[in-house]
Amino acid sequence: MTATYDAVLDALGDRTRRTVLERLRDDGPLPVVAIARDLPVSRPAVSQHLKVLKDAGLVVDRQEGTRRIYAIDPTGLSLLRAYVEAFWQGALIRYAQAAEAGLSSDADQ
Amino acid sequence: MAHQPAPGGLLQPVRQSVRIRRPIETAFELFTRDIGSWWPVETHHARGDVVGVVFEGRLGGRIYERCGDGETADWGEVLEWDPPRRVVFTWLPSVSRGAATEVEVRFTAVDPTTTQVEVEHRGWERLGDRAVETRTSYLNGWPGVIRRFVEAGGAA
């Protein structure tokens, strides 16, 4: 889970990848050539960025004839949210346990 | 332009709560001043090798870990200090990225010996805002994009 959470944040930490996500968000599913248009990086670099986004669960792709079409995938952000929820659940359990422990040690004194 | 998060968006504030057998005053103290006695530092820390956690209980106070080598590493800063009912602080979910989110903790007395504690972790859009400020000279509009991105994803 931690690795995925990190992968999502890492993927979002790059300007070009954010631009790619914005483009998919605003324009809907697109082929690589349309995603790469006007970006200051090579098309192979864009493909590499798309791979990082895909591995983080932020985009999905499908083959349409000779073209590969990319679209936003909500999975990555769901995992980020699940991670944060689990994190606080665990922390609050520890907090409640500390409260109980404090009570029993008070009682012992 | 303000974008309101869509209902049910993925990065709406994360909320968790717990009810503990402590009066509200000591529940508040346990969460803040005594955070080092229960926080799972073995899995959630900034640098690691944590020997203590300091929560400076005042407006503008720092929250940080003390490490075995004498160094410290920041976790956040107190934005609102209203004991024993409420505290708000910035939170670095991943320090290496330098992006702060925000945590609010509210305490409500259920009865004289029981307290309801609610945590709200919010401000996820700031991850994107800060990324623009700290990393690059690009200033053309990443603010709020995670939130808007979530709306798009949530609508899919």
Write up this protein:
The complex is a heterodimer of chains A (109) and B (156). Chain A has 109 residues and is of the alpha+beta class. Chain A has a single domain (2-108), classed as Winged helix-like DNA-binding domain superfamily/Winged helix DNA-binding domain (Arc Repressor Mutant, subunit A, Orthogonal Bundle). Chain A is built from 5 helices and 3 strands. Chain A has helices spanning 2-12, 15-27, 32-36, 43-55, 75-108, and strands at 30-31, 59-64, 67-72. A 3-stranded antiparallel beta sheet of chain A has the order 1-3-2. In chain A, a hairpin with a 2-residue loop joins strand 2 (59-64) and strand 3. The longest helix of chain A has 34 residues, at 75-108. Chain A is elongated, with a radius of gyration of 21 Å. Chain B has a 7-stranded antiparallel beta sheet. Residues 1-10 and 128-156 of chain B have low confidence and may be disordered. Chain B has helices spanning 24-31, 125-135, 145-155, and strands spanning 14-20, 50-55, 62-67, 72-82, 86-94, 99-111, 114-122. Chain B has one domain (14-123): Alpha-D-Glucose-1,6-Bisphosphate, Chain A, domain 4 (2-Layer Sandwich), CATH 3.30.530.20. The longest helix of chain B is centred in the C-terminal third of the chain and has 11 residues, at 125-135. In chain B, strand 6 (99-111) and strand 7 (114-122) form a beta hairpin. The interface between A and B is large, with 35 and 43 residues.
